[in-house]
Amino acid sequence: MKDSHKIYNTAVEATLEVIGGKWKPVILFHLTFGKKRNNELKNLIPAITQKMLSQQLRELQEEGVILRTSYNQVPPKVEYELTDYGWSLKEILHLMCRWGDSHLERKYGGRATVLANPELGDKNDI
């Protein structure tokens, strides 16, 4: 069956169709710092269930933004990394992180804690 013509009110909708939701941007953000194994992602995002992590990784892989590499060894080893297409999201993900930091400071002052706060470098470096 041929896909019907898709209509969007704005291209933001198309972006959110790929990376929208609670967990996909967080997963992608962590992958901007390099390859990660399933357990590494689970440790970086402790609130996500294993089932949800697997589902989100599968959906991101289907969209072509992450690559899943399975190594034929015992015990099994699987790594996830951004594809070239996925790397095109780095700037927006890091800008979202910076905006979030500013928002937390504005809204909560010093009364909010960010557990994973990697060095993003100068905003002109991305």
Structure report:
The chain is mainly alpha-helical and 126 residues long. It has a domain at 11-90: Orthogonal Bundle (Arc Repressor Mutant, subunit A). It contains six helices and three strands. It has helices spanning 11-19, 24-31, 38-44, 50-62, 84-87, 90-108; strands spanning 36-37, 66-71, 77-82. It is globular and about 50 Å long. The N and C termini lie far apart (41 Å). The mean pLDDT is 93.
Question: What are the SSEs and their pairings?
Answer:
Elements: H1 11-19, H2 24-31, E1 36-37, H3 38-44, H4 50-62, E2 66-71, E3 77-82, H5 84-87, H6 90-108
Antiparallel strand pairs: 1-3, 2-3
Please identify which CATH superfamily of the domain at 11-90 we are dealing with. Answer: Winged helix-like DNA-binding domain superfamily/Winged helix DNA-binding domain
Helix share bin? 40-55%
* Biggest pleated sheet: 3 strands, antiparallel
Q: Give the helix tally.
A: 6
CATH class of the domain at 11-90: Mainly Alpha
Rg (C-alpha, Å): 16 Å
Beta strand count: 3
Give me the strand/helix succession: HHEHHEEHH
**CATH architectural arrangement of the domain at 11-90:** Orthogonal Bundle
- Helix/strand-derived category reads mainly alpha
As laid out across the biggest beta sheet, the strand order is 1-3-2
Strand content: 5-15%
Low-confidence stretches: none
Q: What is the average per-residue confidence, as pLDDT, rounded to a whole number?
A: 93
